[in-house]
Amino acid sequence: KVNLGLWITGKRPDGYHEIYTVFHTVSFHDRIIIKPSVKQKVETTSPFIKPEENIVTKALKRFEEWTGIHPEVEIFIEKNIPIGAGLGGGSSNAATVLKFLNKYYNFPLSDEELKKLALSLGADVPFFLKGGIAIGEGIGERLTYLDKKLEKKIFIIYPNIQVKTSEIYSKVTPQMLTKKEDIHIIDSLLGETEAFFEKLENTLGKIVEESYPEVGEVLNTLRHLNYRPLVSGSGSSVFAVGTPKEEMKKICQIKGWKLIETALE
Question: Are 5 and 173 in contact (CB under 8 A)?
């Protein structure tokens, strides 16, 4: 997914920040292979993810805790989505596996229970149970799905650095908070699409740009080429509507940035 805009609307007593964001799934994805197996196992093509720390491993354990069913499966994940990129790769994988397990074992969990289980794994995991486009509020878990999709080509640039979400949120100041009534996104989303894209902002993106020069370089390069780039989530990925110009492709090759051409879906 990408976050089509993200605003911080408050801070809760538990230290978490309240947000207002627009989630939208993209066609770019990981590939998950699930096979019946007496020995439960989770493997991935990424050398950076230890099996015991994989959110999918945690999803298997949590599913067993909630249902009493020990999933007898072997899972292999072909990782395409970069790690620490603000694209929700791990969260989408966890949600996909949870949906599969619930169906495979004849729906021991209701839709509401499945959402609660997903939330126990991460704030944006519940969104991926359905996907599409949704307004996310609270810590991102209060979802309002919209009965429409934005059919737009986008491209994502990953500058090959990981950003720690907690670090970025720790730099949010009271001056950065936005009143909910000042966020006029729904009106433009339901009406003129171009107006919607012109109103997009990401409060966290400004922090990422100042904290990580590599991300700032990507943003400035895209601005120079007349794109309106946005950081997705808390970074480090940057995306823009449209297709990358040849000049942009060459710059990515020279800089070693990962260029992902995809579409909102």
Answer: no
